[in-house]
Amino acid sequence: SVSHSQITRLYSRFTSLDKGENGTLSREDFQRIPELAINPLGDRIINAFFPEGEDQVNFRGFMRTLAHFRPIEDNEKGKDQNGPEPLNSRSNKLHFAFRLYDLDKDDKISRDELLQVLRMMVGVNISDEQLGSIADRTIQEADQDGDSAISFAEFVKVLEKVDVEQKMSIRFLH
Amino acid sequence: LDYQHVQVPFEITLWIMLASLAKIGFHLYNKLPSVVPESCLLIFVGLIMGGIIYGLNDKSPPVMDSDIFFLYLLPPIVLDAGYFMPSRPFFENIGTILLYAVVGTIWNVFGIGFSLYGICQVKAFHLQDVSLLHNLLFGSLIAAVDPVAVLAVFEEIHVNEKLHILVFGESLLNDAVTVVLYKLFRSFCEMPAIKSMDVFAGVGKFFVVGLGGVLVGLTFGMTAAFTTRFTKDIRVIEPLFVFLYSYLSYLTAEMFHLSGIVAIIACAMGMKRYVEANISLKSHTTVKYFMKMWSSVSDTLIFIFLGVSTIGENHEWNWPYICFTVIFCLIWRALGVLVLTFFVNRFHVNSITSKDQFIIAYGGLRGAICFSLVFLLPDFRRKKLFIAATTVVILFTVFVQGMTIRPLVDLLAVKRKRESAPTVGEQIHIRFLDHLLAGIEDISGHWGQYYWKDKLEYFNSKYLQKILLREYDQPKSSIVLLYEKLERKHAIELAEAGQLGHAPSHPSLLNNDRTVITDKKLEDTLNPDVLENIQEILARNLYRIRRTGPAYNRHTLPGETEPVEHAKEILILRHKSL
Fold it and tell me: What are the boundaries of the region Disordered (chain A) (predicted)?
């Protein structure tokens, strides 16, 4: 679990973001971070912090979301097979990313959802048709059950060669 | 024919004209700048010019006057660097930068000085009369990494933002150390006896020089910001204030024997934020363009003069000493970087890789500052030896290190090849994860720095902004602020010309019958041609993560580099969706 010094750091970061000083963060507080404004996925990342239908997130929620990005310690790997899976396991990290794609929460990334994300990530020089064929290609590579959408299991399979544990870990949180 | 009347301005203008024409000449041949860095070519031109002058007059060509260099040629370059310095990465890495600049330079000075003294003891080289103090003095001027040379060469190689700022920041800040040590050893040379009190005084002086420079710079910077608050009705001379105050801060610091470079940087960084808010958009553009122009001209002139001054009879060629100087410079720099990085990596989690260390060590170029300092040395018997050694070191670093750093970096960057090329899906998802992580890192902030940054922000919003800014608005969300800033010029242009989302596609990139692809059966889309096209499209068009590119570029204005163009596109897309 998270150490005391990390909690203190995150709390001071939380309070520095909380301009209204009411113990919770709103979406505007996140949008004030300049680097986030030019991140293509900025809005979706911000939304990931807020529980369903709410507009404020408290420190506990803030930490819980960030806990997905803790590096996986070596001594945790084989440890507790029976207990609840820690938030920063490979599977949960991937699930976090999957939820950013899957806006309607039907556990599938449909072609439209993929197109939306692609459009956010590429420049303006790509036409809709080109983007469509890229999306088609992506789905076709991953799709194993023939439903023209990417399920979570298929998503995991695409990324099996990628070192997700390292890619989705914030380096200072250990 | 009244040549005497116009001689001085005429000759100055001719030199500047020569420099500019040379620059045009290089860029006409497209292949050349990629193989040979511009600085090498300019020195080469200088060598030719020096040779011509020597041949015509049969005496040594005019040596670059140290005063001209320090008072007229150096300030524009440092101002340009300081004004456009990306402050976020600079302050994020300030600890490491200071460590390299201060401790690293001291390490190099003493290392080189003592080893050269050791060489002087060898009877065969006939160097016994060069005392330890002289060697230390020489060490102090040759050890410093030069910002002009570093800037010139690092543009050719594309390193990430953090590395760039480390080497660059170090080269700027080590001026304080160089100034103190140089003056210290020089005064020691003239004193009959050295007491330990003097050494302590030297150490104390270092802090005075550095911090004093920062104070002077900030004072002038704040005054400049305050002045621009009242310039609403005389927009035409607004840009002038930026330059006047910066130059004054440099000269004032030099007057008090403080570090002028540190002062001008502090001035530029301090005033930038407020001045840019106060002055008009046109003045802003004027400031940017003039700075780039002046620093470009200065830079070119410096290298040409370096070449010219090399020819002549100012040198005493004692090859053992010279060769050992070059060798020791390389060795001590490498050792210094290794040891310091070892310490740095223990405290920071973002470790500096060995490839980075190599670039830092190899990128420690010497340039015109060493050259001018060596000419400022008091005349003593072995001065020409030092001049020769300095010349060779500079030429070596600029030519050999400058030309080979690019191929070496490429060599080191070869990653282990994957067994198979990444699939399209992998590519997209990996980039997705990269953006996600960058965003999360920005949200969670970096350890420790936000304490001081927030204190400064608080101080800023409560006091400074009210005094220094003309119009003080409530803070809006970042995206709205940034969007408003862009809106005036670029957003409108982009919206009109680009028709976002409906840009004409390039027919060559996909097969001609595009529509057929979506109709074809699944097996057909496994066509390798199509796959290759898609890979190519993605490679070229996916937005890069912010930190993988250099944030400061010498020859382009800050608003025109590729990452910034992408940022604008992203902002406009998001604002549309708001």
Answer: 71-90
